[in-house]
Design goal:
Layout: H1 2-18, H2 20-26, E1 34-39, H3 46-50, E2 57-62, H4 75-86, E3 91-97, H5 101-107, H6 116-121, H7 126-134, H8 144-160, H9 164-172, E4 176-183, E5 188-192, E6 198-200, H10 217-221
Helix pairs in contact: 7-8
């Protein structure tokens, strides 16, 4: 906590004075064009990764970067509803990452025996686990967590499309959906493409909508 308090003092004494005009402009309104749904993991610093400033991103974070399907009242659905009705959102990003604790919990459910709330929350990612297992995924494989995390991003994009406001705006071309995967040890961000492949975002690439899935999440993902 001492480190955090020192950081606040540095912000107040050094950072804020140099950016006073920005914060005064933000004091009464916000107009972010991008909603990011990311994991709560402490290692995921979205402002640092994207090099954005205060006011640029509207962020919703939770364990496993999950989006429960429309109709379930929760903080994620409330954030999506607010973002699309009160803010000029034009893009929604779901960002998964390497070494994700939520994905580890899915792969090794016995580790969650003392965390019933976490276990219940992760039911919104079970389709990704089913797809991983149908692709002969082994829980102990070196790339298991990363592979499952990427399946999970695709599944949560499908859940996003169950929101009428999201689906309708995507269809009319006023909203774009993006699936990202952040590799912590390399600083690499990859984007899901229309064919389900992943490409680095190091260089500008034409926008390509992530794969639209159908049927059950598990079967569509593993097709």
């Amino acid at each position: 906590m001492d480190k955090i308090i020192q950081g606040i003092r540095h912000f107040q004494d050094e950072v804020f004075p140099k950016n006073r005009a920005l914060f005064q402009n933000l004091a009464s309104s916000q107009s972010p064009e991008t909603l990011v749904i990311a994991c709560s993991d402490s290692r995921i610093s979205l402002d640092l990764i994207t090099q954005t400033s205060p006011g640029d991103l509207f962020v919703c974070r939770n364990a496993g970067n999950l989006v429960p399907p429309h109709g379930k009242s929760n903080a994620v659905s409330a954030s999506i509803e607010y973002a699309l009705n009160a803010l000029p959102i034009r893009d929604i990003v779901i960002c998964g990452h390497s070494d994700c604790g939520a994905m580890k919990g899915l792969l090794h459910p016995k580790a969650l025996r003392r965390m019933p709330q976490v276990k219940g929350w992760l039911t919104h990612a079970e389709g990704a686990l089913a797809a991983f297992e149908r692709q002969s995924g082994a829980a102990g494989a070196p790339d298991a967590v990363a592979r499952l995390a990427k399946y999970n991003v695709r599944l949560q994009l499908e859940h996003l499309r169950t929101f009428p406001s999201v689906f309708s705006r995507v269809q009319e071309g006023t909203l774009r959906l993006h699936g990202w995967f952040y590799q912590i040890d390399q600083g690499e961000v990859s984007q899901c493409q229309g064919d389900g492949s992943w490409i680095p975002l190091r260089h500008p690439v034409p926008y390509e909508a992530p794969l639209v899935l159908s049927a059950s999440s598990a079967e569509a993902l593993s097709a």
